[in-house]
Amino acid sequence: MLINPFDTDERRAFRDTLRNFMDKEIVPNAFEWDEAGHVPWAVHEKFGALGLWGFGIDEKYGGHGFDDPFMRLDASIEISRCGVGGIGAAIGGRGISLDPIQRLANEDIRTQVLPEIIAGRVGSSLAITEPSGGSDVARMKTTAKLDGDHWVLNGSKTYITGGMESDYFVVGARTGGKGLAGISLFFVEAGTPGFSRTPLGKKMGWWASNQATLYFDDMRVPAANLMGQQDYGFLQIVQNFNYERLTLAGIALGMMEAALEDSISWAQQRETFGKPLIKHQVIRHKIADMSSKIDALRSLLWVLCATIESGTMPVAELCKAKVFATKALEFVASEAMQILGGAGYLRGNRVESIYRDVKVIAIGGGSEEIMRDLAVRQMGL
């Protein structure tokens, strides 16, 4: 096992607390909740009590008053090790909306909603993706037009994680011309007249993530709910996606660790041709290859966290790390399925669930193709 040279007592304590909580509260129920497509709301509040969403948030809003990329990474790893991606998605979906609310919403909104969201008492979501375009945000069709002291929004969003249960949304809408420099952000409360939502249809994975399609039909929001500068809302939150990429790479790492653990356990118990599966060279080589990719990804993410902590946001490297993570996850999940054989194909085990969730990690938060292109552009090429 590699030793993190950047580890501290505080980080170890946070990691151990979260792992113990996952083992006692989440793992025994994860598959049942995923099959039901719902995580009990009391679980959100328990995660809130652990301080899961307080990083980078001022203490006066219920946050920690400090940030720590290593603790963010550890949280994504430990939660995803349960092997049921929909649990982490349902719980963590609010995370990407918090920084925009703190930086761009007015003080009344910040004071009213941030403590509730961070404590897990209510949910929130970022609503950018539309049915007509995912990664191509510049084609956004949802519109917002000023009418007196209100903005009137029309359009729709989809694949909004946590969207069926969130109370608050940060919504992107076009207020200006074409392109990214014509998009503004608005704070929207569920229940606003003209707001409606429907659940996504049956998904390959992430069953408990309660993802939604949102609809805005002449929905009026107060002018004060405009977040940040008009027409530059999306450009003001692009840095927000760097932590999302780190989180998704951490999720991939946690899934890989779980798949390797279960592969080794199965190979030690299963006997074929007169000896344990683990004693067959072909299986030992698979485990060596799987573990080497885990070591490589873990080391890369530690260095990226240290870079962030030093004050530099390594945008290109985070993009490349997400691609590396998802390609490594694809390999490890496939090899784990081969090692378990038919047993891995049965519902109710981590390898089966992880195998189904590979693609949502590879696509969500910026597809591999988009990440490669952005990385090269950030390299100045």
Automatic annotation (TrEMBL):
Residues 233-379 form the Acyl-CoA dehydrogenase/oxidase C-terminal domain. Its cofactor is FAD. It comes from the Bacteria. One of its GO terms (molecular function) is flavin adenine dinucleotide binding. Coiled coil: none annotated. The keyword Transmembrane helix does not apply. Pfam families: Acyl-CoA_dh_1, Acyl-CoA_dh_M, Acyl-CoA_dh_N. The keyword Cell wall biogenesis/degradation does not apply. Residues 8-120 form the Acyl-CoA dehydrogenase/oxidase N-terminal domain. Belongs to the acyl-CoA dehydrogenase family. PANTHER family: ACYL-COA DEHYDROGENASE (PTHR43884), ISOVALERYL-COA DEHYDROGENASE, MITOCHONDRIAL-RELATED (PTHR43884:SF12). This is Acyl-CoA dehydrogenase.
